[in-house]
Design goal:
The structure is a homodimer of 454-residue chains.
Chain A lengths: L3 H5 L2 E5 L8 H11 L5 E5 L5 E2 L2 E2 L13 E4 L3 H13 L4 E4 L10 H13 L3 E4 L4 E4 L4 E4 L10 E9 L2 H14 L2 E7 L8 H10 L5 E6 L5 H14 L2 E5 L4 H8 L9 H10 L3 E2 L3 H13 L7 E6 L2 H14 L3 E2 L4 H11 L5 E2 L3 E2 L6 H13 L5 E5 L11 H9 L5 E4 L4 H12 L3 E3 L2 H17 L1
Helix pairs in contact in A: 3-4, 6-7, 10-16, 11-16, 12-13, 13-14
């Protein structure tokens, strides 16, 4: 299904734009303007002449010229009527934000709407959704204020979510953490366009490298399975399932009106399709950042470099615990050369390579240089605890420079503001960073698992 | 063992204070001054007359009057000589920062030192440690600069760590997260004072409510077991073990020179003693914050309140998955009253209680009021996604007000800067906050497990 107009439309009508800043239609309109969207925007409301100096229209039929995408934010009982007007205007792509359908037991209205949409070949995202964003094209069609929900910069992660609020919280956090996004799609009740259609579309979307999917239930299991299998073979799909427990399933009914189905079936499908299963939102996020920034991993031999002994030890424990990683053994020649260069009898030249508390940037540089060259090492977990005074800020350039050579370098650093500033700088350079070592190890483990199967 | 002088000494000599700001002795001295320590400080260095307008002494014997605590930061080969001078000055409490002993194979020097310390009944923390802090008494004796490693405010968490760097990173993060600390003790090689002595001391310490312990290995297993059992019965002890895998154990030898021992034995001891086992540093932190702020939990019936359906669902899944919690069923009378008060047919009055996306502060207030009164509910997981515009900042007062009534309220909110500011305000009010729902659920699960046994 071609969903281009939801992300690249050159003309958008927003139906239900109010002068009241608390209303959804108002916020949608304002966000699109504030996002610096370059296409034409038509606010529609029978009682409005203009808003922010942009001419408003009494009805859709009053709009001159073509409208590629309609966004509907009117009360549920008016939705079908507005959809019909859109159809008369030959609009075949409609985003319906409005809630109050199947998820509250109003199945009849949704069925009637669905029938009309299908009959007239209208592509519809929603109902009961937060909306969509294309961060590259600056199409910002989610109804939460940009002051409350910061938008991430443009990048290669696309996030597909059945739950709008969950999506909004994650998007906001991702913006703060410097993750970069291609598209955000909250699809709500999936009245017409469902998760499979979106996955299929994102497979072909060049600006999407990694797909995150939060899912409660799917209607067409076979379609989903075959689509997921196809997509996950080409692009990493990180999936999180809501409604695993019986109690959770009950809750999904009043949420997106979906039947959560048997969890075992879902997890069976995920595994067979080589999807990346996230056990938690936190895990989905660090998987996304890792797959977004790392291109490929050659093998499973991991070298740990640290300036904190305890961190090296717990990272070692984690590497062993995940099962599919092994500790690298440095090439003896390279190791001996490094020993000479560092020339410090307190440094422990094993794995972990413990550079100890007085390590400076130069000691890190020498170590990275050795490990990047060493073919016995497939990936590096680089622990940098910035609390020690000898690490200077030019370590940012050192790390990001070596990362560009291709071998995955995952950086772990824990701390307060100073640490965060340096971590943000690394994130800007496309380096994967982690607050805790266990996250870096889990991410590496999934990288190895995902790419081994390819 | 009375360790009072390490935290409450009225006079402290720092031996090895240099004019060079990069040197450990210099940083120790400066930190103590900058912390606004109220006692007497004597910097000692044969080549120094004064530093920062404070008179320096050529040797310990030159110091007039009593010295309650000596801090040694001189090269390893000089340590024993300095210790002897301290003993001649009748100093019985010595913190030895210096590294270069058993952890790098220099067992002979450490044995010799230990023998002398034991013979003269000297209490010694270290060698090879980061130092100690008492946040109430403003005794700041760790050698990392306060600009790099922010210190937490005074509170009730005490953190005992065998690894200095690990401790420093965590301390810095805790300061940024608003956690409040009583004492920090990095004990390194445990030449004299070991983890058991410190636990025993903290048991009696009135300003310590929760103890965190990062451990690699103990020398005297029986002493540790009996101490841990005694302490954990009165105060929550959150313990994390480094060196679980064989490979991790190998790394502990070159770190703190400890034999990590059989992991199963350790975990057996932890469980029998009713310690709280943290699987990761992240978990140790949110356990600490929870036990620091929650006094008691009456039972395991949990009510989830949310403004995001997806969050309610995954929290439900988590509650069921941990095994020892159950979903509360609201008292019908209270529920019906709440239904009338909220009067919104989109709100879902189950568990989760889904207040939906347009929930305002008042809707939260009504729900909290009902749930706090309801005896069918033992604890509340309150999900507040601040991205929606109707939640006003006075929700801080609402939540912290109801929390004071005693029933545990664990707040989950995910997002960027706006979320963080509101979360920090709640933390200041002593409310437990979490970035992800699974953490709140795990914390509740441990609360129930820990207090059930009592």
């Amino acid at each position: 299904m071609n969903l281009d107009n939801f992300f690249k439309a050159k003309s958008i009508a927003i139906i239900g734009v109010s002068r009241n800043p608390a209303k959804i239609g108002h916020v949608l309109f304002r966000n699109l303007i504030d996002a610096d969207y370059k296409g034409k925007v038509y606010p529609v409301n029978p009682e409005l002449n203009s808003l922010f100096n942009i001419k408003a229209y009494k009805s859709i039929s009053d709009i001159p010229g073509k409208v590629e995408l309609a966004v509907i934010a009117v009360p549920a009982e008016l939705v079908l009527r507005v959809v019909k007007e859109c159809n008369e205007k030959h609009i075949k792509d409609i985003l319906i934000i409005t809630a109050g359908f199947r998820e509250i037991g109003n199945k009849v209205s949704e069925d009637e709407l669905k029938e009309y949409l299908e009959l007239h070949d209208i592509r519809c995202i929603g109902v009961n959704c937060l909306g969509v964003v294309d961060f590259h094209k600056k199409v910002d069609l989610i109804f939460l204020p940009r002051s409350r929900l910061k938008r991430p910069e443009a990048g290669n992660i696309s996030f597909v979510t059945q739950s709008g609020a969950l999506g909004s919280a994650i998007l906001d956090l991702c913006a703060a953490n410097g993750y970069k996004f291609s598209k955000f799609i909250s699809y709500g009740n999936a009245t017409i366009v469902d998760e499979s259609d979106i996955l299929e579309y994102l497979l072909k979307d060049k600006s999407t490298k990694v797909i995150c999917l939060y899912l409660e239930g799917v209607k067409d299991g076979e379609k989903f399975f075959s689509t997921l299998k196809k997509v996950a073979r080409k692009k990493p799909v990180i999936v999180m399932k809501g409604g695993i427990s019986e109690e959770g399933k009950t809750a999904t009914k009043s949420h997106t009106g979906s039947l959560a189905g048997k969890s075992e079936v879902y997890f069976g499908i995920f595994k067979q399709a080589n999807a990346i299963i996230a056990d938690s939102l936190e895990q989905m996020l660090y998987y996304a950042s890792t797959f977004s920034n790392v291109n490929k991993i050659r093998g499973n031999k991991i070298q740990i470099i640290t300036n904190g002994g305890g961190y090296g030890i717990i990272t070692t424990d984690n590497v062993i615990a995940v099962g599919n990683l092994i500790l690298a053994r440095m090439n003896e020649k390279i190791k001996n050369k490094l020993k000479k260069e560092i020339n410090n009898n307190l440094v422990s030249f094993g794995n972990p390579l413990d550079l100890i508390g007085d390590a400076d940037t130069e000691r890190y540089r020498k170590s990275l240089d050795a490990c990047v060259k060493d073919n016995n090492i497939d990936a590096i977990i680089l622990i940098v605890l910035y609390q020690t005074p000898l690490i200077t800020t030019d370590i940012i350039e050192v790390i990001s420079g070596y990362r560009r050579l291709g071998k995955p370098i995952l950086v772990v650093s824990t701390g307060g503001n100073f640490t965060r500033v340096l971590r943000d700088a690394l994130v800007d350079e496309g380096v994967c960073t982690f607050e805790f070592p266990e996250h870096a190890v889990k991410a590496l483990s999934e990288l190895v698992r995902y790419y081994d199967i390819e």
